[in-house]
Amino acid sequence: MDAMKRSISIAILIAGVLLLYFGYQEYNSLGSELDQAFGGAGSTESILMLIGGAIAVVLGGSGLLKKK
Predict the structure, then answer these.
(1) Mean pLDDT per 10-residue section of the chain, whose length is 68 residues
(2) Can you tell me the distance from the alpha carbon of 6 to that of 31, in angstroms, rounded to the nearest whole number?
């Protein structure tokens, strides 16, 4: 059972890192830069990916660091 929890934590951590990467790429895309230039805060998708990625990284990391 411990190996399964560890595998799930690793999968969540990897998914979080990927979400952070793609959210960062989307945030720095041309469309998002234009939106920011005209007073916007960037695309909602990129912000949601960054927030979701950060949450997943914290959850996956805490699952790996948790002791029995």
Answers:
(1) 87 96 86 69 82 96 84
(2) 38
For residue 5, give the amino acid letter: K
- The pTM score is 0.80
Task: Report how far Cα 67 is from the mean position of its chain's Cα atoms.
Answer: 24
Residue 25 tokens read as 């790429």
Q: 64 with 9: CB under 8 angstroms?
A: yes
> What's the half-sphere exposure (Cβ side, CA atoms, 13 Å) at 51?
6
Domain boundaries, the chain: 12-33+40-65
Length in residues, the chain: 68
Region of 39 (left: φ > 0; alpha: ψ -120 to 50; beta: rest) is left
